[in-house]
Design a protein that fits this description.
The protein is mainly beta. The chain is built from 3 helices and 15 strands. The strands form 5 sheets. Strands 5-8-9-7-6 form a 5-stranded mixed β-sheet. A 3-stranded antiparallel β-sheet has the order 4-3-10, with no helix packed on it. A hairpin with a 2-residue loop joins strand 3 and strand 4. The radius of gyration is 19 Å and the shape is globular.
């Protein structure tokens, strides 16, 4: 009798061939994305977002979620699909990552969908690099595809952005008058 083969997924978990994942669908700027069900804590309306001075542009500010302060992230900016306008959405999905909670500002919610590993595809090449870097899988879903957001990668990019003050920095060697 042969043992079932196991593959290591992008998240480092072992999964049997033909495994399924459950993802909560959200809409941001008209595009549909999936979030792993296990990281979604709640969906809520934000009454007020308090801006954080000098924060990267992806951080809308901080918000109150049942007495707990959470960082509100503009998901459209994190994914580089921001059209430059002011987002008037007050809908958010609360996720937890390494013990911290974040509110992802979104336009709408969808259903929980079950994705079969057999329907997993390579991310289309016509999407932007930032989009590809913040997804860990894409699934065929009817005539469309569903990109699954990689929360680790998304927050890692944000952390790099905040380390540089949210903007590109260039060090100068004043003694030589050049860039380092």
């Amino acid at each position: 009798m042969t043992k079932p083969q196991h593959d290591r997924s992008a998240q480092g978990r072992f999964e049997a061939p033909g495994a399924q994942t459950r993802n909560f669908t959200i809409k941001v700027r008209g595009q549909t994305f999936g979030l792993p069900v296990e990281c979604v804590k709640t969906i809520f309306h934000i009454d007020q977002v308090t801006p954080v001075p000098l924060a990267p542009r992806e951080i809308a500010g901080v918000a109150n979620l049942r007495g707990r302060i959470v960082t509100a992230l503009r998901l459209d900016r994190c994914l580089d699909i921001d059209d430059g306008g002011v987002s008037d959405s007050a809908l958010a999905v609360c996720i937890e990552h390494n013990g911290e909670r974040y509110a992802l500002l979104i336009d709408d919610t969808g259903d929980v969908v079950t994705c079969d590993d057999d329907d997993r595809i390579a991310c289309p090449t016509h999407v932007g690099l930032q989009f590809i870097e913040t997804t860990n899988a894409c699934y065929r879903l009817g005539d469309d595809f569903l990109p699954i957001l990689d929360i680790d990668a998304l927050l890692r990019r944000l952390s790099k952005s905040s380390d540089s003050g949210g903007r590109e920095t260039v060090s100068r060697d004043v003694s030589r008058g050049g860039e380092i």
